[in-house]
Amino acid sequence: MNKKVVIIISGLIITSGILSTNNINFQNKCNKEVNIVTAVSAKDNYFIIPDSSTRYLTEDDLRGLSDEQLEIARNEIYARHGYQFKQKKMKNYFNNQKWYVRSNYEITTDDLSDIEYENVMLIKKVEEEGFSNSNDYYYGDFIIPDSSTRKVSADELKDLSTYELAIARNEIYARHGYIFVSDEWKDFFVNEDWYIPTSYSVKLNSIEEYNVAMIIKEEARR
Length: 222
Known about the structure:
Blueprint: E1 5-9, E2 12-16, H1 21-31, H2 59-62, H3 67-79, H4 88-95, H5 114-132, H6 154-158, H7 162-174, H8 183-189, H9 206-221
Antiparallel strand pairs: 1-2
Helix pairs in contact: 3-5, 7-9
């Protein structure tokens, strides 16, 4: 004997003559909760900047934020996409956020919208400007801490070992979030708190290009 089933969808009543497997599957799909992270669906206090994925930020929006808040604000843009953080600090932070769901595939800047990409670049700019005015600009984490803002000399490179030269060259790219193909450098920089891998293609400024060329020249001399 056929059983009638009443399914209510968005206020409409649909009567079916047979309770079939397809009916059940359809109901299950309707009942399935889909979590999409937006500024509307998540509480504001879970984000440093709740709407950084939906509007272009200005420098005024970033004034008053600490260095740590700026770092989180930049990374939460990636976290909305489920970015798999490798750096322990960010991994621990976002794993404790209820809205964060880690993606099953690798997220890069290509996955960001135009608004998100511009906001990431703006936050990075403010971060870098802030650090450049500080006497301890990442000091101790880099072979050459200011190699993105100052041209290095041949004399100072002569005092570095071959391995230190290689690190100094690659850390210039790492600052921009370059995703290393080499396992050696991928494993090396993933252990640095400041390193956030974001792209396979990065653009260096003129000072950085000069310094990379100088380091390569010294490496070739060895």
